[in-house]
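Figure 6 in text form: structure in, sequence out.
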């Protein structure tokens, strides 16, 4: 079952988010996710199985340019994660289906996402959920 995150889901979602974004401090994730509860242009969707949180997705509206999109706003899948033991049980596709419904209700005609080049699991998930590749980018930085 997929639902919008509540305060009761917060601790489990933060725990999973640390696995998805290991460089982020748990306190920062908790602040960000708590703020999403009051943000009209963002949502965290949670998948549960037998009352246990097994996955989540952070979704936002983007009004700026989104690679490959021609409309605005665009529903943007900022991150999706399913616990390792619960993968390949269709939880991610259910979460993304919930994201599509939310984005439509928010006036979007397109959704988008991204992943790191070489993240084969993410690429397979996106393609299985009917996303089409829009572009590949390598970003560079130089300290001066």
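Output sequence:
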């Amino acid at each position: 079952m997929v639902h919008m995150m509540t305060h009761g889901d917060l601790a489990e979602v933060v725990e999973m988010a640390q696995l998805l974004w290991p460089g982020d401090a748990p306190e920062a994730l908790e602040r960000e996710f708590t703020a999403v509860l009051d943000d009209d242009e963002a949502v965290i969707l949670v998948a549960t199985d037998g009352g246990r949180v097994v996955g989540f997705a952070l979704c936002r509206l983007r009004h700026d340019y989104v690679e490959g999109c021609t409309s605005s706003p665009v529903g943007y899948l900022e991150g999706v994660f399913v616990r390792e033991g619960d993968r390949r049980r269709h939880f991610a596709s259910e979460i993304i289906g919930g994201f599509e419904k939310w984005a439509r209700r928010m006036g979007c005609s397109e959704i988008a996402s991204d992943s790191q080049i070489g993240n084969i699991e993410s690429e397979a998930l996106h393609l299985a959920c009917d996303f089409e590749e829009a572009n590949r980018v390598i970003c560079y930085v130089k300290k001066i």
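Caption detail: Residues 2-128 form a domain with the Aminopeptidase fold (CATH 3.40.630.30).
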